[in-house]
Amino acid sequence: MTNRHLIDLSSMSQAELSELLNLAGEIRRVPGRFAETCHGKIMATLFYEPSTRTQMSFQAAMLRLGGRIIGFDDPNSSSVAKGESLKDTVRVVSGYSDILVMRHPKAGAAKAASLYSRVPVVNAGDGGHLHPTQTLTDLVTLNEETGRLTDLCIGCCGDLKNGRTVHSLIKQMSRYPGNSFVLISTPQLGIPSYLKDYMDARGVQYTELPTLEEAMPLLDVLYMTRIQRERFSSAQEYEQQKGVYVLDQRKLKKGKKSLRVLHPLPRVDEITVEVDDDPRAIYFEQTEYGMYARMALILTMLEGSERRLEPCPKSTHDHRCQNPNCITGQEAYLPRLFSGGGDMLTCDFCDERMLVE
Amino acid sequence: MTNRHLIDLSSMSQAELSELLNLAGEIRRVPGRFAETCHGKIMATLFYEPSTRTQMSFQAAMLRLGGRIIGFDDPNSSSVAKGESLKDTVRVVSGYSDILVMRHPKAGAAKAASLYSRVPVVNAGDGGHLHPTQTLTDLVTLNEETGRLTDLCIGCCGDLKNGRTVHSLIKQMSRYPGNSFVLISTPQLGIPSYLKDYMDARGVQYTELPTLEEAMPLLDVLYMTRIQRERFSSAQEYEQQKGVYVLDQRKLKKGKKSLRVLHPLPRVDEITVEVDDDPRAIYFEQTEYGMYARMALILTMLEGSERRLEPCPKSTHDHRCQNPNCITGQEAYLPRLFSGGGDMLTCDFCDERMLVE
Amino acid sequence: MTNRHLIDLSSMSQAELSELLNLAGEIRRVPGRFAETCHGKIMATLFYEPSTRTQMSFQAAMLRLGGRIIGFDDPNSSSVAKGESLKDTVRVVSGYSDILVMRHPKAGAAKAASLYSRVPVVNAGDGGHLHPTQTLTDLVTLNEETGRLTDLCIGCCGDLKNGRTVHSLIKQMSRYPGNSFVLISTPQLGIPSYLKDYMDARGVQYTELPTLEEAMPLLDVLYMTRIQRERFSSAQEYEQQKGVYVLDQRKLKKGKKSLRVLHPLPRVDEITVEVDDDPRAIYFEQTEYGMYARMALILTMLEGSERRLEPCPKSTHDHRCQNPNCITGQEAYLPRLFSGGGDMLTCDFCDERMLVE
């Protein structure tokens, strides 16, 4: 891979991504061939907020490659929380391990870690910002289950305004020809306008529909997510609307035979339990694809990686990022890195745009 | 094994149990022969309540077989607690692993897990209901230490009303010829009448004695457990009685030379520290036998097991189990499975009986 | 090693220490040669207080030797805290594992553990008492970085009164010829008089200086530690003095080119972040040397070790240790072991001296 770290899936070329997807498929088919490929290697999982599912997926992935694991999963009960900077922890732990996997509540934390790490860093979720291995999981699932990443009509249902997994999926699938999207949500929770611009610029077709029922017959893929109760504009609207975005057996009947239903999990009640038994429901298999995706990623990142500390980039501007969820607000020593120019800058850590005077 | 899962030791035939005990003994004698037998396999430990001792025993067992481990040990600090059903967690984690070990505060939880797992499930304690690997540990200990499981006079001391380990031991040892029991407890804390019926039906001899002192000379085996202070009928009675059920050097002197003292641990003060140095005290060795017992179990369960999801059984009745500690009260999607007929049903999850109209 | 356990570095002969340092260096240079030397062995990490950094260092060390790990890191969320004695836990866990690593808030806890363990015990910190593997880390760092352990002028800066890592370093380095010390602290936080006596008795040179600035040009090694705010005699003094014991770029300029700056970590603000980029700052490398130090230690302790329970020594006196932080106050069954004679006894667990009548 061109990049030593995986912070944002967008930084990967389509050729690199394609190689990764093929490798994941090969690992799935002949896992025995890869059982010792990371023998002697250590993965450190630095989870600054608990995420048992993601952590277990990474751990299972590394163990199935023959590697080993150190790390923490709850800094509150750990001494790491006691006033050590992210930089110091990363400098130390990257001396013990061969690859770092980081989960953090602040946007840009994995990017920050990559500045000080002697080994490759994988972003396992940085606040509501990015979660590239979830999207990688979704792509492997689609590739393996439909046999292609092109010419798919993909329904996205739920809270499309705030769902980072949906945003990332739309971006990635827009890179492949022939895909179109059906966006199913309330008027208030539609996808952000920048994503519409993104699709328009690439000539990607999309429709917005108010109900899951209308959309069902059109879809090759349905990507379900949850709308949290408090996102509805009123309790009354919640009561009226809630059923509209719940997938049940009745609605599923209107779907194609070849439909595939995905969900990033955990689900709450947006898919009824009965749906689980339908062969088109593949959200549990999806988590297993996620393990193969992470195996392919770890293997690729460790291959040819050498331990080295690269010089930390210098601040590009004097400004401070104004995003309260950005890691730069918490770790004051970080360089101030922005892209763009004129009076509009984008923070390299959290990707928030900022108007400067 | 006939059964894919180990939920209740009673479901194992005596031939299967015998094979398991022999295997545990062989592993103990030539551990090197088994050091790589689970190479490449992953055990997931799903501990919905912390139990460090049990978890470490399972982990050591799996590691000594060459296998690896993922899992969690405290769902409060983990995201698993955040509204994901037991079913979903089991479906996901059984995609990452080759065997599941589950500890849960609700009765029937391991049984529930077995309905949705693609890999074998081991019950590592489900509330106050069952704890089959503790009983397996006890059987391996007796078999290795006395060289037999027959013709033993077994004293059980402590809270025999509520002690599930004692109940399970009595049931298992009643399957072997020539064993007899001496039950040592307060009148209020004697064994439940169903266990007396059980022994009567099998022609198993038993005596009830009020003091440990009287019982000592009779015993080949003494299985000690604790009476919690609050189980006594009054504070006054506690003060009068407490010493009666404490094993100390003076009482131990009245025991046979070949006596073996067991305890499921942790002990509090029901065995004095001085007793530890007596060679007849084998409760610490017992925990090591527990590791061999679990090694034999894991090895047997993984042998010839293939990943598959069996169809979930349909509800047998419309009734709901009334036991507030039953897993079915918490996980509403579970099928309602009962055995028995007429107006008396037994819940297949928690084994509670229920009168229906 | 003469001693089966590592409780206190002082109990190691200089020849043994020297062998250990050489082995650590060899492991660092050709790690591959040692990658399977602990294959099949299990290390149990019993951390009665969280110390993520120390635990990860031990874990990485054991994994890089091909071994495996069980243990706990937070007894509050674990059942071990529920009324089981240290003795019982150690008896049980030493039946599961091949080496125990213990961290505990009470002085003497590792010594106590060693009385009941069937396998070697390593002290990973017992309260403010001892932390031998930190000192071992410091020695390996000095040996590898300066190529010698003799003829070094070593500056120790910070709270020298309470800093156990500094005390231990001074003791160890006083065993080698030609070393001298520069002690940099406030008058209230100077080193204890017993350490001055110790150096005087061995003819070791030392100077006390009030500022880091004056000391800088003299030093081959600077060992930085933190002065906690509350150690200053007043808030006013804190404000006046705090900068004096902070290492920044300006002060570092006065240091030799060959200077090496060490710190046991975590640092808070006693070394400014800019210093990290100076090649003389080796505190992050120091943690990696710590991993090699622990690899050498584990390997040496496991070599030729056999599982056995040694008879527990009998109480030497009737007295109880008066130190409120001593493990003997918490675990009442421990033998009362004291050294010395006449009316001055030293507790063998916590090393506190006690006047008896």
TrEMBL record, chains A, B, C:
Pfam families in UniProt: OTCace, OTCace_N
Keywords on record: Pyrimidine biosynthesis, Transferase
Binding-site residues, L-aspartate: K82, R164, R226
Protein name stated in the entry: Aspartate carbamoyltransferase
Organism: Solibaculum intestinale
Binding site for carbamoyl phosphate: R53, T54, R103, H131, Q134, L265, P266
Pathway given in the UniProt record: Pyrimidine metabolism; UMP biosynthesis via de novo pathway; (S)-dihydroorotate from bicarbonate: step 2/3
Location of the Aspartate/ornithine carbamoyltransferase carbamoyl-P binding domain: 4-144
Catalytic activity: carbamoyl phosphate + L-aspartate = N-carbamoyl-L-aspartate + phosphate + H(+)
GO MF annotation list: aspartate carbamoyltransferase activity
Protein family: Belongs to the aspartate/ornithine carbamoyltransferase superfamily. ATCase family.
Known function: Catalyzes the condensation of carbamoyl phosphate and aspartate to form carbamoyl aspartate and inorganic phosphate, the committed step in the de novo pyrimidine nucleotide biosynthesis pathway.
Enzymatic class: transferase
Annotated coiled-coil segments of the chain: none
Subunit structure: Heterododecamer (2C3:3R2) of six catalytic PyrB chains organized as two trimers (C3), and six regulatory PyrI chains organized as three dimers (R2).
InterPro entries: Asp/Orn_carbamoyltranf_P-bd (IPR006132), Asp/Orn_carbamoylTrfase (IPR006130), Asp/Orn_carbamoylTrfase_sf (IPR036901), Asp_carbamoyltransf (IPR002082), Asp_carbamoyltransf_Asp/Orn-bd (IPR006131), Asp_carbatrfase_reg_C_sf (IPR036792)
Residue ranges of domain Aspartate/ornithine carbamoyltransferase Asp/Orn-binding in the record: 151-300
PROSITE patterns xrefs: CARBAMOYLTRANSFERASE
Enzyme Commission no: 2.1.3.2
